[in-house]
Amino acid sequence: MQFGHRHPFGVVRREFLQVGFSGFVGLGLPGLLAARSRAGEAGPGAGGPGPRRAKGVILVFQTGGPSHHETFDPKPEAPAEIRGEYGTIGTSVPGVRFAEHIPMLAGRADRLAVVRTMSHKHNNHLNATHWVMTGQEQPGAFFDKVASRTDYPCYASAMSYLRPREDGLPGGVMLPTYLMEGPLTWPGQHAGFLGPKFDPWQLTQDPNREDFEVENLALPEGFSVERLGGRRALAEAIASQGEAWQARAQSESFSKQRQQAYSMLSSGEVGRAFDLDEEPEHLRDRYGRHMFGQSLLLSRRLIEAGIPIVQVNLGRVQTWDSHADIFRRLREDLLPPTDRGVSALIDDLEARGLLDETLVVLAGEFGRTPKLSTLPGQTIVGRDHWPQVFSAAFAGAGVRGGQVIGRSDKSGAYPATRAFSPADLAATIYRALGIDGQAEVVDMLGRPIRLVTGSPIEELYTGEAV
Question: Which Pfam families is this protein grouped with (predicted)?
Answer without folding.
Answer: DUF1501
